[in-house]
Amino acid sequence: MKIATLSNASVIHTWRWVEYFRSRGHDVRVWSLESGPTELAACPLPAAPLPGFARYPFAVPALAREVRDFAPDVVDAHFVPNYGLMGVLLGRHPLSVSAWGSDLLIAGRRGALQRARARFVLARADLVITDADNLARAARDLGARPDRVHAVPWGIRLDRFTPGTRRPGLLLSTRMHEPVYDLATLIEGAAVVMGRRPELELVVAGDGSCRRELERLATAKLPAGRFRFVGRLDPDALAAWLARADLYLSTSLSDSTSLSLLEAMASGAVPVVSDIEGNREWVREGDGARLFAPGDTDSLSRALEGALSDAAWRDGARARNRLEVETRGDWTRNMAGIERLFLALTEAPA
């Protein structure tokens, strides 16, 4: 199968997706306005100095020429407002569009123009892939045909994310440093509990536009010498930190299925996470995790105390969470399901 993938080459999710299909023997070519790792071998597209809503359509003529020469069996577009729009403007079928979460849960609800753009794309896709039920529902609400929408969590590598020797009191965040992940609330909430519990240490992985501001806030709020910002980690280093962590913290304001959450669950880092629908598809209050109201520092502090105060509950949560991810979040099994959806597209009548 020849697959033309349109996606942000700088994002690790793109690389993981393409790596799977190439490992299965498919001919995958990637087009992107953003540069990525050399291993991805993405075909660059002209990135004009225009606002985002115009920059992606501007690149379509160049993309159309190259895709025509490639003659793919499937066009595979990721993130609805930009590469999904480009996929529709190409005019080639079958077209699969993958929603990643914020493209529908946030951007798709901001205003009439954003909703109209999402509807334009979703109504013309032959297949819409989402990674959670709440995202599938958002796609249907925005005009995707119900029979074309499939909720399939991408899943994680269970052989990579495994429990290790745990360090008691190690709190770990692995989310990117962007506003939607609300790490300021994480720092403020953790500071309260760390002030009462001298054994706690906070490690903040990841990077992003808010990093400097967050580092300043942490210096002002957290006990000196008991927090670290370790930057963006490669998959093996990330797995090693998760295997040691006692608790995993996420203050995300919006999510579909969070791969970071699944990685923590598989590794034995007990989640203390925001009470949002995407998280509740995998854990519930007291059932695998402690939940807190999004953006609420006091609620986070209480949830963190609740998790730290009950070692027996944490042990039970670890066993429950590993089984849950093995059952529903296995990368190899779930990606095979998406591969079958692609193959079905190529066999369907035009």
Structure, explained:
The protein is of the alpha/beta class. It folds into 2 domains: 171 residues, Rossmann fold (3-Layer(aba) Sandwich); 159 residues, Rossmann fold. Helix content is 46%, strand content 17%. The strands form 2 sheets. The protein has a 7-stranded parallel beta sheet, sandwiched between helices. Helix 8 runs parallel beside helix 9 and helix 8 crosses helix 13. The longest helix is centred in the last third of the chain and has 18 residues. The protein starts with a strand and ends with a helix. The model has no long low-confidence stretch (mean pLDDT 94).
Summary keywords:
single chain, 350 residues, alpha/beta, Rossmann fold, 2 domains, seven-stranded parallel sheet, 14 strands, 46% helix
What is the topological layout?
Layout (H helix, E strand, L loop, with lengths): L1 E5 L5 H12 L3 E6 L10 E2 L7 H7 L1 H11 L3 E5 H12 L4 E4 L3 H4 L6 H11 L4 E4 L2 H9 L7 E3 L18 E4 L9 H14 L4 E5 L5 H11 L5 E5 L3 H10 L2 E4 L8 H9 L2 E5 L2 H4 L3 E2 L2 E5 L4 H12 L2 H18 L2 H17 L3
Parallel strand pairs: 1-2, 1-4, 2-3, 4-5, 5-6, 6-7, 8-9, 8-11, 9-10, 11-12, 12-14, 13-14
